[in-house]
Sequence to fold (218 residues):
Amino acid sequence: MLRALSIRDYVIVERLDLELAAGFTALTGETGAGKSILLDALMLALGERADPGVVRAGSERAEVSADFDALSIAGVREWLASQDFDEGDGACIVRRTIDAAGRSRGFVNGRPATAAQLRELGEMLVDIHGQHDHQLLLKRDRQRMLLDAYGGCEGLARVDFFVDGEQVLVNELNTMPGFTPTSVYAKLMDASGIAYPELLDRLCRLAMERHEQRRGRA
Fold:
């Protein structure tokens, strides 16, 4: 949930601090009231292309900060932890600045972040639907995630993504000199102490057991 949005020297906005309460569902206003400016500022914070033209006339830089509550979004918490952005309290504060020369900087929970990282995080936090905008519901991975969530199979889905991701890693390493499938799997087996197929089998069986336990508690 978006809890707060702060904007400084963005387009025509000199200073804006917007706090949103739980249950907020709609932002309305007349044509020209500035609704699109708020959405564009939010998307800038979440990694959209930074255009120096958005810096307010006479200002050195524009800054947008968005505060999200990530406690209820497991995928976001896991991503923050994997990227060393986790604060341990569910905080997810995204900040982006751009100066008049076009130089842009991004931050997640006060730590420097790339535009690609901001976009990846943004896809998990916000889904904006417009007349010609990209919609996450058209992505096969998003469709599968929603179906898995509806069926209570997130554990199985994570194992499936792990397997797919490992195969991608192997394919990429195969294009590098000195790497072969045999050498890659040998490293994996050395790290785990067991054969790689057995490792995957154990993960799958564990996910199945947890899935059955969740179904039993339902």
User: Anything to note?
Assistant: The beta strands are 2-10, 13-19, 61-69, 91-99, 104-108, 111-113. Confidence is low (pLDDT under 50) at residues 159-170. The chain has seven helices and six strands.
